[in-house]
Amino acid sequence: MFGSEIKSLKSLNTYLQKLVKGKLWLKVIIALFLGVSFGLLLSPQTGFIEKDTADTLGNWMALPGVLFMKLVQMIMIPLIVASIITGIASNDKESLKKLGGGVLLYFLSTTTIAVTIGSVIATFFKSGSYLHDQAQVEHANQLASSVVVQAEFSFGLNSIPGAISNLLPENPLAAMVSGEMLSIVIFTIIIGVAVLSLPKDLIRPVKLLLSAIQEICMTVVKWAMRLVPIAVFGLMAQLTSSVGLSSLVGLGYYVVVVLAGLLILVGVYLTLIILLGKRNPLHFLRKIRDVQLLAFSTTSSAAVMPLSLKTAEEDLNIDKSISNFIIPIGATVNMDGTALYQTITTLFIAQAYGLELSILNIIVVVVTIVAASIGTPAIPGGGVVILASVLSSAGIPSEGIIIIIGVERLLGMFRTAVNVTGDLTACIIFDRWYGKKQNLN
Question: What is the pLDDT of residue 130?
């Protein structure tokens, strides 16, 4: 009897190993559910263990996730520099002018579409009005002093010239050390364009060196990917144990409105895949599910950039010069999901405080968010920092962030997955227009 049970367990283990072999997406889904379940058991709300013990266990369980993020972030800057310069150097000057201008116009257009969707949905559903309770606002004000995220950016007319000039780093090495991704990208683009002016005999060794750097970085990524299922389990367990379900239920309507907006935005992407990319949208979604799940788990567009590059080139068959140019830039400036989230959240907080925004106020918010989303850090929680400045510029109390802080991480998962989907959608479209392979599959 005992022997037959051991045999059955071995058979089940063998079956499970065959089932998940080579299927990262399935491993991540299993890890997600296990992490949430285990996190609920650890949550102080269940009464099984005390909060201090739960926090300690949560920190230890999140360790593999932290190590994964550190490994990827460690090679992020050299990978961005090598990828962008290689992408630029792989094009001639004329095609680069068309590609660069087209990508910029495309990113601005999709970001504008995203904030428009957010504005319409937030205005129509008025989710913030359900929280318009003076007692709640008073409570938020009392807590604000310890939780408020200070606005680090201002987007007034007087500050625009300074903001533009600050995009060019005085010291590129200092920008790399401090992780100023937008400045690094602009510096790299300038260097990449300068490389094009070199004679062919000098360009070749530069491209070989950069290709070697890319391969080294991707090797480190392969090592890091082995940690992904364990990392996802730990991060989800820590998140669920610290947040619990009660705080998520309290803001359920707001969460549903944001998710509905993100779903509509994904629908826009799939429509673009059909109309402009001439590809099967369901086939596209199947190919990118690993990237989406990893983005969902890590809440960082930058962290999944190496996997996005790999997926674009190997699974979507995108021309390497296109993916190397678009994905590193997109991970920094193309934050459509974040822009939509910031729009809905800004209007939600205004409604929660009982503030009526005119059409002109909403337009100012939309323009500010389009500008702010370009500089949103591609890291977990980066959107909250920018959101504080957006609220301040719109005359909305920035301490209102405390209202949504409990579900911010949850929504961050969804909007990051949408951000990554937007970058890969751009790759499909521009590969159709400018790619050397001209694949239509």
Answer: 62
